[in-house]
Amino acid sequence: MKMIASIGGFSWNSYTEDSNSIPKSSFMMQGLLEQLNVTRDSTDYLWYTTFVDIGKDEEFLKNGQYLLLTVASAGHSLHVFINGELSGTAYGSLQSPKLTYNGNAKFRVGSNRISILSVAVGLPNGGTHFETWNVGILGPVTLSGLNTGKLDLTFHNWTYQIGLKGEALNLHSITGSSCFEWGEFSQKKPLTWYKAFFNSPDGDEPLALDMSSMGKGQAWINGESIGRYWPGYKAFGSCNGCDYRGFHNEKKCLTSCGESSQKLYHVPRSWLNPTKNLIVVFEEWGGDPTGISLVKRITVDAELQN
User: Fold this and answer.
1) First CA to last CA across the chain, in angstroms?
2) Separation between Cα atoms, residue 209 and residue 295, nearest integer Å
3) What is the residue range of the signal peptide feature (predicted)?
4) Which residues make up the CATH 2.60.120.260 domain(s) of the chain?
5) How far is CA 85 from the centre of its chain?
6) CA gap 53, 108 in Å, rounded
């Protein structure tokens, strides 16, 4: 009988992305741009940033209320930051990648910064008119609850930043990681990079990373991509029998409801050195990296198990 056994966890250092900076590589345009036309698929990530001035006579300030920020996106996921603080997250689904974020946001008197990190997780490379499919924030983007009613931010000046600072620093690579001074471990923060070292386990059993404690992000071993992970995306539906006949869709798998769509990510042994292997994880949501473990598949005698 095949079983999964944990080999051990990791001792982490971390670096958190700065959501409140505008690097020199950014540029400004009026209106909202489609994501892939800007990134050229060089990264999953594109920052959309604009500023809103709030007058001291606004009624919502006196009443202690919040403004309602609405963001319409073609998909696939986004994180909203107001003045550098995470305000909310939204994501689409397999059936409907488009999404609309509605969230109460705390604004202050004066200039307020709205930064939205739009995240793409790939596009199908087939099907009817697939070349016309798009991602990113296409609008409208509105702010409701002001004295004047609803403010449309769609055609404001937006500053665009392609990718993350950690990507520009090549933190996932052996060279980039070693040239950067990482901080002490910081747990459960969004947009955080984690780094650790580990030795290759003995034996020749298949290895994997158990990422079930994490939310959404990417992982690398010795600079090689393990892939995107998304265990925070849970299976849903009625737990009946599965039927995989015909074309596949997410409703054909009706078991393990409430569990992660995937939690184990294969680690090829050919990528590993005997000692000092580098693992780098970028976490978008704020998962718990202390729960990440290296596991291996073992064979257990059924009689011994009983």
Assistant:
1) 11
2) 6
3) none
4) 27-163
5) 16
6) 9
Domain 2-16+166-298: give its CATH architecture: Sandwich (2.60)
Measured in whole angstroms, the distance separating CA 273 from the mean position of its chain's CA atoms is 29
Which token pair is 21? 């900076």
pLDDT of residue 141: 98
Short-list 28, 263, 281, CA closest to 156: 28
| Pair 73, 100: CB distance under 8 Å | yes
pLDDT digits 0-9 by tens, 250-301: 666 666 667 787 899 999 999 999 999 999 999 999 999 999 999 998 877 6
Residue at token pair 């034996």:
203
Q: How long, in residues, is the chain?
A: 306
User: Cα separation of 200 and 113, whole Å?
Assistant: 45
Tokens (6 digits) for 133: 């499919």
CA distance 224 to 278: 10
pLDDT tens-digit map of 51-85: 999 999 999 999 989 999 999 999 999 999 999 99
277 beta partners: 198
Give me the CATH code for the 27-163 domain, please. 2.60.120.260
